[in-house]
Amino acid sequence: MTRQLHFNAFLMSTGHHESSWRLPESDPRANTDIGHFRRLAQIAERGTFDSIFFADSPQLFQDVGRRPAGGLEPIQVLASVAGVTSRIGLIATATTSYNEPFNLARAFASLDHISGGRAGWNVVTTATAEAAQNFNLDTLPNHRDRYDRAAEFLQVAQQLWDSWDDDAILADKDAGAWGDNDKVNTVDHKGRFFGVRGPLNVERSPQGHPLIVQAGSSEDGKDLAAKYAEAVFTAQQTLADAQAFYSDLKSRAKALGRNPDHIMILPGIVPIIGETQAQAQALESELDRLIVPKYALKELAKTLKIDPSELSLDEQLPANLPSEDQIEGAKSRYSLVVSLARRENLTVRELIGRLGGGRGHRTFTGTPVQVADAITEWFDSGAADGFNIMPAVLPSGLEAFVDTVVPILRERGLFRTDYTGSTLREHYGLPRPTNVFDKTLQEVG
Amino acid sequence: MTRQLHFNAFLMSTGHHESSWRLPESDPRANTDIGHFRRLAQIAERGTFDSIFFADSPQLFQDVGRRPAGGLEPIQVLASVAGVTSRIGLIATATTSYNEPFNLARAFASLDHISGGRAGWNVVTTATAEAAQNFNLDTLPNHRDRYDRAAEFLQVAQQLWDSWDDDAILADKDAGAWGDNDKVNTVDHKGRFFGVRGPLNVERSPQGHPLIVQAGSSEDGKDLAAKYAEAVFTAQQTLADAQAFYSDLKSRAKALGRNPDHIMILPGIVPIIGETQAQAQALESELDRLIVPKYALKELAKTLKIDPSELSLDEQLPANLPSEDQIEGAKSRYSLVVSLARRENLTVRELIGRLGGGRGHRTFTGTPVQVADAITEWFDSGAADGFNIMPAVLPSGLEAFVDTVVPILRERGLFRTDYTGSTLREHYGLPRPTNVFDKTLQEVG
Q: Candidates 3.30.1360.120, 3.20.20.30, 3.40.50.2300, 3.50.50.60; correct CATH number of A7-272+362-428?
């Protein structure tokens, strides 16, 4: 069979474009409406997507004037969505910097049970001082320490997920023996960041471990991804950059002894779809027209770690910006924004327009065939194993993709017409992890 | 109208009796079956219960031989249950000792949004060294420190829940203003245990705050309950003890300036129901017969902080037990068990039988009328505002209560025939908290 595309639907309130909530069709209160998210998941499942995904951060991005801010805790949303879907994978962001491994390992194992093996965890380290200040700290821990903590966090979580052998439960009513104590193992981890005895307070879940997703593209982020990630969300503006990232990450994984097919690279794209190219462009223009520059300026200045007063809408970025080394926060996002502006000689106003759609992700604007062609080109030229689809407007942008682009890709033989597996791992072609504690098993990797 | 009863259904896997999983009717894998819990919630809602409740602990109670152990994370379970119910309240335990206020405040606010105002939080401090060892500690923090942390945790959580004014969202599409920054407030808490800047990353929820439930009956526990709790779960073996507890707690709340009607006292009872008294007693005997003494002995020794070898099945408890002062863990449970054994001169075997049903809660065994009479007696004599119903076997014990006891209490005019409110607070007759940050409001407490 032809190599197959994979699609994740990255869902957020009224869509990824910062103006989407201002369109007549949009519900500005969608961010706390569980029914909205249940309907979106059902649309994505109708399109046989591999998964849906919710980002999250343990802070309020302060300016609530700009767009819908804050919202529902994503793991709960997915537990709810699991009840109205049967196949689609369910991925949530959670931070390793402000959680304890025992609690998060439990949460994702629980979601995996509730969904029948459909849970995924996007591991983030959270790159802002504002978040740190919600968790007893004055300033952001440095980049390397956050990633070291994330790595240890994952090691502990994996052991907790393995702490029950798959056959630990006897359910022997006659003998009065529910479980076998010899098949439930302590973890006894003592490390730099954590001391965790275990075992976990829930049995091993259908997938063994939830799918591990990672999205940082800094050097530390890529190292973590190469070691642990099974799917990677990434923002790439050009085919050449996407190809370089793809081959870099696959090589890093291979160098660590991993099968490079077991790390799926999924660039984020913002499809803006119209029946004609003119209609698609009209929608994009309307969305860009609705951007309020004062909010966008503040946000851009924050990414660049400069004062908003240093930016002028109709001039290019200042020449003397900090270097990526000096950024302790979201390094890869910083570099992406600066290089986009420099490469295309954009004014600040133009840059804001480009970022408004997908916050640095590539926008594909056009007819269904044009969008399908762009996807096919990236997929066929070593830039992607699939895509993180980020509709500019929700639900209409997801519906347009499912109803007009997906059929074209199915016809080309590049995308499934129905689910063949039942777990998230099966959709992405990833193995169920062996249990490190199970004495009866050999590593089969 | 006659003063009305309130009922909470305390749900756990196959029921509260430790042998319930061994009955032919029981599914020993129910503890990870979300469908089981969704069905139970629907039964309780059919019975117009005020709420359902799930206990939890961030550790595995080690002996998995004894009964179904571990299970799904309760907040996720409730998020799922919310989708198949519309009125019943949804209460989950979460510990203040091993969580961060920002994360838990977000979780319960989120559940309150998802359920349309039906969330409640049973605040616990977690009384075991095993749990501490899952969170970077070697030993259990002392009782007073845990309760001090719980109080500060609640203060922070309440401020986070209030950090958005109720009218903070403008949703003004024309002006391009989603929220009003002046109505979203930082918390800037700096205390002994926590430093939390805020605001919360979700808007104020339908109930303002989730319902606060508390269950510790030690002195520290009662003080915390008197100050913060709006419903109290308690284990009382005799009417006299229940009356004393009821009037003590109402007085403590009153002394703190609270309306004593705004703290609901809900003793836990294990109803074992049969068409005839003989049938009810036969069910109870069958359950007790299925108890495996070796597990129960270990558990009892743990509660008493002694070695299992110090217990003999056919003798009474040893005379030289520690005093409650020496217990750093679950003080009130310790005292309840010891006083039950001493008061009734029980052998260890008899004590195990009595504890097997409801872990120290009162068992009411009999016909529907007898159970309804017992409930009415406690309710009418200053011992309870309602009851925490702990079916020995699930789902059958809950079904029996809803289908045979509830109709009698409705006929007596003591219990609602249909919901009159839509939020959990409305079911219990509790006010929606005013927002401490909202400058346009006066305290109406």
A: 3.20.20.30
